[in-house]
Design brief:
alpha/beta, Rossmann fold, 2 domains, 3-stranded parallel sheet, 9 helices, 11 strands, 41% helix, globular, binds the ligand Nc1nc2c(c(=O)[nH]1)N[C@@H](CN(C=O)c1ccc(C(=O)N[C@@H](CCC(=O)O)C(=O)O)cc1)CN2, histidine biosynthesis, methionine biosynthesis, NAD(P)-bd_dom_sf, Aminoacid_DH-like_N_sf
Length: 293
């Protein structure tokens, strides 16, 4: 068997075209969505991702507000930029690119953000709302995983999904999304402390590998026909991406999201979707207020 490729690049392009139409409609009503980014330090991956996010914005008509700080920035300096974007009316939503440099209190920075401007779904209020089943911006990579599966008709209801990883951008929140009634999957969450990971992987209908361990998922660990999504990113000495999934898995899996070209572009598309949706909601609120007055 050779796996069907879950093409994140093409799927993200289709989603971006749909979003461009919605941005045009917002602009016709005098609303211009603006995405802000706060990037601290020299992490090469983070610079690539943030540049990609602003390229995407330009493509679909979202305004860009970029803030960059050196790796030596203090907690206070970073927090001052957060406050500035909270107060900046051109910035309708923003993100703090993670990871922040060592020594910075990430949770304090995230908590200081105006939750109404959280474009990443990583503010404690957004994550709390997700737990409670309330409307909230969804974390971009988990939402991208689900949209990628849905747009390729991979069955989710009743599926056993093994999520490998417990980081805040993917592993922590993906099970929350997958177990909503609308998805109805059953999730086993694994991590570096999991005993006999291969035994659990072999039971999975869907594997989401987000551990950041190169080639952790081997062909013999995958049930024939399963969907395997490669989310983890490590880099070799030349900066080339090494995913969590061994290349041989392609011969066993039924579906495979490549890395690069799989979930990464979907993460960026879901960020744009959060920005557009927040602008639409704010616009609807403003219109409602106008009628009431
Ligand atoms: N504030 C956040 N920080 C981080 C998040 C996040 O969702 N919010 N997720 C990751 C990084 N990330 C988004 O910021 C991200 C990762 C990958 C890609 C992407 O398009 N990757 C390309 C390859 C690009 C390359 O050559 O390196 C692909 O997979 O094809 C976009 C965004 C951690 N931080």
């Amino acid at each position: 068997m050779t796996a069907q490729i879950l093409d994140g690049k093409a799927t993200a392009a289709a989603i971006k075209s749909e979003l461009a139409v919605r941005v045009e409609a917002l602009k016709a009503r005098g609303i211009t969505p603006g995405l802000g980014t706060i990037l601290v330090g020299d992490d090469p991956g983070s610079h690539i991702y943030v540049a990609g996010k602003h390229r995407d914005c330009a493509q679909i008509g979202i305004a860009s507000i970029q803030r960059e700080l050196p790796a030596s920035a203090t907690q206070e300096e970073i927090e001052a930029v957060v406050r500035e974007l909270n107060d900046n009316p051109a910035c309708t939503g923003y993100i703090v690119q993670l990871p922040l440099p060592k020594g910075v209190d990430t949770n304090r920075v995230l908590e200081l953000m105006d939750p109404a401007k959280d474009a990443d779904g990583l503010h404690p209020t957004s994550l709390g709302r997700l737990v409670l089943g309330q409307r909230a911006p969804l974390p971009c990579t988990p939402n991208g995983v689900i949209k990628l599966l849905r747009r390729h008709d991979v069955p989710l209801a009743g599926a056993h999904v093994v999520v490998v990883g417990r980081g805040i951008t993917v592993g922590r929140s993906l099970p929350l999304l997958l177990t909503r009634r609308s998805e109805n999957a059953t999730v086993t969450q694994c991590h570096t402390g999991t005993r006999d990971l291969p035994a659990l992987l072999r039971q999975a209908d869907i594997v989401v590998a987000a551990a950041g361990v190169p080639h952790l998922i081997k062909p013999e660990d995958v049930k024939p026909g399963a969907a395997v999504l490669d989310v983890g990113v490590s880099r070799d000495e030349n900066g080339k991406i090494l995913g969590d999934v061994h290349p041989g898995v392609r011969e066993v899996a039924g579906w495979l999201s490549p890395n690069p070209g799989g979930v990464g572009p979907m993460t960026r598309a879901m960020l744009l979707a959060n920005v557009v949706e927040a602008a639409e909601l704010a616009g609807a609120g403003a219109a409602g207020a106008g009628h009431a007055g």
